[in-house]
Amino acid sequence: MKNNKSKEIVADQNLIAFCGLYCGACAKYLKGNCKGCKENSKATWCKVRQCCLENKFLSCADCKTIELKQCKKYNNFMSKLAGLLMNSDRSACICKIKEIGYDGFAKEMAEQQQQSIKRKK
């Protein structure tokens, strides 16, 4: 049964996806149709999620072993296509997390009511 009542966008670092997106501002999450990346145990197809769980990372921002641009798990075809279609810059999100921390990022994304930092044209 679908929940027709939308949730409010709040700042919560637990709603930051492993790839840097902010689930707390996602339409599916807000409508109750998704629990968010970290709670979505059905997302076994996501290599980024698997890697972060295996390495006990909150997100790719915690990885010190490989440059984000070089990571094949992060930079796969589907993520590039999704980023293009959603006008989303996940790597800018990861850089922002590194710059201002998880709480700061969650607060900024909630204030802007955005799931992702937009791609620069």
In whole angstroms, the N-to-C terminal distance is 40 Å
Q: Tell me about the biggest sheet?
A: none
Mean pLDDT: 91
Low-confidence stretches: none
Fraction of residues in H or I helices: 25-40%
- List the helices and strands in order: HHHH
The count of domains is: 1
What's the count of strands? 0
Count of DSSP helices?
4
Q: Specify Rg, calculated over alpha carbons.
A: 14 Å
Strand content: under 5%
Oligomeric composition of the shown chains: single chain
Secondary-structure class: mainly alpha
Specify the overall morphology.
globular
List the helices and strands and how they pair.
Layout lengths: L26 H4 L16 H9 L21 H10 L3 H23 L9
Task: Give an overview in words.
The chain is an all-alpha fold. The chain has one domain (13-112). The chain is 38% helix and 0% strand. It has helices at residues 27-30, 47-55, 77-86, 90-112. The longest helix is centred in the C-terminal third of the chain and has 23 residues, at 90-112. The radius of gyration is 14 Å and the shape is globular. The N and C termini lie far apart (40 Å). 28% of the residues are buried. The mean pLDDT is 91.
Quick structural gist:
The protein is mostly helical. 38% of the residues lie in helices and 0% in strands.
Name the descriptors.
121 residues, 4 helices, mainly alpha
